[in-house]
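seq as requested:
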Amino acid sequence: MSTLAPERAGGRPALTARDVSDLPGRAVADPFLLRHDGAWWLFFEVWNAETGRGEISCATSPDAGVSWVYQSSVLREPFHLSYPHVFAWEGAIYMVPESRQDRAVHLYVADRFPRGWRRVSTLLRGAYADATLLRFEDRWWMFAQRGLDELCLFSSDRLETGWTPHPASPLWPGNRSRTRPGGRMLIEDGRLIRVAQDAWPWYGHSLRAFHVRQLSPAVYDEEEVPGSPILRASRAGWNAVGMHHLDAVRRDDGRWLAVVDGAALAQF
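C-alpha cells:
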C-alpha cells in the first residue's frame, strides 16, 4: 500500500512515502486515528527500505483531518511491525501493532506520547495478523487472522491478560474474502460493524463490511452489509491496484473522519 488518504482529500493522497523524512520509507499503510489532548494523530506503518521491515510512524493534522504533517518514527523492533491499532483506555494510550514475524501479539503503552512506547504484555503467542481489539459490553474482544484464511476470535475480562478462544473460533475458515481484519471495529446507530480485507483473488483487492448481529461469550453471528465491498481498487491513480484498510472515528461535531490506504501501479 502506497498512500494514506482521508475521506475528503479531493482525490489526492494526504500522505505518501515521500513525506517520510527520518528514514528511507518505501511505502506507508494501515492508518489508525487518535484524538488526544485536543489534537488529531495518525499512526501508520512505514516500510523501511534499509532494514526491509515495517515500523510505526505518526503524523498530526492542523485542520481536523484534511491534511497531515509527518512527525517521526515512534516504534521500531527487530521484527516487522504494521497495523498499529491505537486506542485510549483508562487514561493511557495503548497500541497493538501487528508483530506476526515475532509470532506474538504484543500490547504497548505510551509513557511519553507519541513516543516512548513500552511493551507491557504479550496477549497471545502465535503467528496472528492484524489483531483488532474492541471493548464491548464490559468485555474485551480480539479478532486476528491466522494463516491465510482463518479469523480467530478471543475474549478477556482484562486487557493485559486472560485471553481465551471463543467457542465459534476460527470463524469462516477457508474464506480469504472475509477473514483478515481491515481496520477498527465501528459502532453506528447501535450496530457493530466489522471491516475485513477481501484478499481474493489478490491481496488488497477490496474491503468488505459486516454487521455483527450477535457477539457474546457463547455465540458469534454476522452478515454482510448492503453495498459491500465498501472500498476497492480504482484502476487509476494512488489506489489503482488495491485498497485494504479503513479507520473511522466520530469528530466533535458528530461527523465521521475516515482514513484509508491504497496501492499504486508504480509500486509493482
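The chain has a mean pLDDT of 93.
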